[in-house]
Amino acid sequence: MRLLTHNMLSSNIKGVTNGFPLRIEVQKVIEKPVDFNPDFLRHMFPMIDWNALVEASRTMGYPDLPDSADAAMLDSDDFLQRFHHSLLELHLEEGALLCPETGRRFPVTKGIPNMLLHEDEVEVSGARAPGKLSGIALFVLSLLPLHFFSHLQ
Amino acid sequence: MSRPEVQAPPEIFYNDEEARKYTSSSRIIQIQAKLSERALELLALPDDGVPRLLLDIGCGSGLSGETLSENGHQWIGLDISQSMLSVALEREAEGDLILGDMGQGLGFRPGVIDGAISISAVQWLCNADKSSHEPRLRLKAFFGSLYRCLARGARAVFQVYPESVAQRELILSFAMRAGFAGGVVVDFPHRIPCAHLWSTVLTTATPKAIGADEESCSEDETSEDEENETVCISDRHRPRKKQKITKKGKGREWVLRKKEQMRKRGNVVPPNTKYTARKRKARF
Questions:
Q1: Is residue B39 exposed (0-12), middle (13-18) or buried (19+ Cβ within 10 Å)?
Q2: B76: nearest CA in chain A?
Q3: Contact criterion met (CB < 8 Å) for A20 and B109
Q4: In what order do the strands lie in the sheet with B96-99?
Q5: Which of A10, A113, A117 is opposite residue B109, by nearest beta carbon?
Q6: Could you tell me if A111 lies within 8 Å of chain B, comparing CB atoms?
Q7: Cβ contact (<8 Å) for A12 and B107?
Q8: Residue B204: what are its φ and ψ, rounded to 5°?
Q9: Which residues of B touch A8 (CB under 8 A)?
């Protein structure tokens, strides 16, 4: 998994309000060369959360990114090369992603993060949505005795 | 052969054996490439040579991703079957792979994806494979989270083999509810009786707030309509509630006239009093 994907992923466990950025637990990092394409980097730059990228890149053992970046730096070839390397060439091969809020561990094996949630972690689970329904049920129950009385009279 | 969806849940149906079979069939590879080519065409990405970040939902063994890579795009693939993803690794898919369930919602940051394609995957959502599965809720979670993570004006193209018209409408209605606008493109209408019908739900994420954006997208739609053989467009706009013609409503004279009419017909009508058609207090 590349840091590009890491920068887009967030934890969608039920009840988590800010599941970004996922913390990285590194066991093995590999590097795969990718064709350098400055157009793609310029296109992606506004969508990247820079702090998360710098943090993740350090965890993966590549500390050469500047702490802050702005669009003006995209003209520098040196900066683009570093950005390219950290964004597309570093792969987390073995390790885990951790939800920043709950600490839930998403294991990464052979570069594939397992983002499957348990049933009780799913935001919209199979259980019927509470709230409205229970209100209606209560209302109906309170009406029932009245009905019975009116029939008896 | 019956449809795979009715045989077993996707993570079980696409086991090691089936995944290998799927990817070693040259016919399937050819069809997948063709479908992805068409999906990419319908995505209508700007033709400026800049690679985009795309999402491949239900990427399987990365057959559709290959087409995306060939066109120079970066992609992230999501699939629920571990075996299929293992095959994708063997085939050295260039995109990143994620093991995940689209029915649980996609965990992506809002507004970061430039487009999404999904080849023969969304119909799996219509099955309840576990007792906790509710197809409607899973469709809602899927389309809702997808809409959130797409950038403004981005498109999502779903190629589905719907079981029936009802299923197609179900999928479509949830896409509309999530905020997508768009329609269905049926590419081979003459093949409807056989099982190979494929229809593409083309949806465009048009943020409601921008009127101009919406117009430009609907123009896109019409231009595509002419190319395709059968197209039905479902609009997201619901008819507005008809407004009352007069603000005041019907006055005392109208009520008295109606009561008189009823009396003439011999109905029992309460007498006219000072309370008849009395106005309510403003505070009510």
A1: buried
A2: A5
A3: yes
A4: B96-99, B74-79, B53-57, B113-119, B150-160, B199-205, B180-186, B230-234
A5: A10
A6: yes
A7: yes
A8: -120, 130
A9: 53, 76, 108-109, 112-113, 149
Report the range of poorest mean pLDDT among A8-12, A115-119, B173-177. B173-177
Mapped onto helix, strand or coil, the DSSP state of residue B240 is coil
Residue A30's domain comprises 3-119
Q: Which residues of B213-224 are buried (b: 16+ CB within 10 A; e: fewer)?
A: bbeebeeebeeb
Q: Is the pLDDT of residue B236 over 50?
A: yes
Q: Which two tokens stand for residue B246?
A: 């007069």
Indicate whether B122 pLDDT > 50. Answer: yes
* Chain B interface disruption, residue of A1, A4, A7, A8, most B CBs within 10 A: A8
Is A124 a member of any domain? no
Q: How far is B134 from chain A (nearest CA, A)?
A: 5
Question: Across the interface, do B113 and A49 touch by the CB < 8 Å criterion?
Answer: no
* The residue to which tokens 């997948």 are assigned: B32
Q: What pLDDT is recorded for position A152?
A: 52
Q: Check if A101 contacts B (Cβ < 8 Å).
A: no
E strands present in chain B? 53-57, 74-79, 96-99, 113-119, 150-160, 180-186, 199-205, 230-234
Q: Is residue A128 part of a domain?
A: no
Complex ipTM over 0.90: no
Q: What is the pLDDT of residue B200?
A: 42
Q: What is the pLDDT of residues A64-93, one digit of tens each?
A: 888 888 888 888 889 999 999 999 999 999
State whether A5 and B145 contact (CB < 8 Å): no
Give me the residues paired with residue B205 across strands. B180
Domains by residue range for chain B, with CATH: 4-234 (3.40.50.150), 244-284 (no CATH)
Whether A130 and chain B come into contact, CB under 8 Å, resolves to no
Tally of domains within chain A = 1
A130 lies in some domain: no
